[in-house]
Amino acid sequence: MKIALLFFLLLLQFYPPAADAAFYQWVDSAGVTHFTDNPDNIPTKFRKRAKKLKLSEEPGEATAGPQSAAPAAVTKAAAPQPQDIGGHPEKWWRGHYAELRGKLKALQAVLADKQTKLVELRRKRVIYTRAQDRVALNSMQAEISVDEVHIAELQNQIDELDRQATSAGVPAEWR
């Protein structure tokens, strides 16, 4: 009996108590707070920013210290608030990027068609050398020049939006 009691006490000495359990907290790129008790569950890009929380199961300690911050963070994560970054919500950033990129893509597709037509008009001009072919060629070149200017303006607008987003700290997935 004494040996069993001694073995039991020795076992308790090496067994870590549950009160020393560590939890980890991190905030992802969407602003959601996560908790885990296994550091391997933390995504690698958030491991450096993860905070180690030491929680206690004793009733007197559960309401004091860093443990009281954990329930507040859980409440915050349960009811996410819309984030305004740079004075605008996520929907605004995504919408502006989508709009500018859509216009740019459409204009580039039209420009490619016009450049193909310009090649055909140049061939006609060489073969027939008529005045109407020269007029068509000149007007197509003018349209292409206007489209190239619009493309450059759209690219500048996208670059400016990128600069604003970078200075405001907008996540890359919103762009």
Describe this entry's structure for a reader:
This protein is mainly α. The protein is built from 5 helices and 5 strands, in the order H-E-E-E-H-H-E-E-H-H. The strands form 2 sheets. Strands 2-1-3 form a 3-stranded antiparallel beta sheet, with helices on one face. Helix 4 (about 90-130) packs antiparallel against helix 5. The radius of gyration is 32 Å and the shape is rod-shaped. About 5% of the residues are buried. Residues about 55-80 have low confidence and may be disordered.
CATH class group of the largest domain:
Mainly Alpha
SSE ordering? HEEEHHEEHH
Rg from alpha-carbon coordinates: 32 Å
Q: What oligomeric state do the depicted chains represent? A: single chain
- How many E strands? 5
By CATH, the architecture of the largest domain is named Up-down Bundle
CATH third-level topology of the largest domain: Methane Monooxygenase Hydroxylase, Chain G, domain 1
Structural class given helices, strands, pairing? mainly alpha
- Give the termini distance in whole angstroms: 70 Å
What integer is the average pLDDT? 77
Share of residues in helices: 55-70%
Q: Biggest β-sheet: count, sense, barrel?
A: 3 strands, antiparallel
Low-confidence stretches: 57-81
Count every helix, treating DSSP H or I runs of 4 or more residues as helices. Answer: 5
Based on Cα principal axes, name the global outline.
rod-shaped
Q: What is the strand content?
A: 5-15%
The total domain count is 2
For the largest beta sheet, what order do the strands appear in spatially?
2-1-3
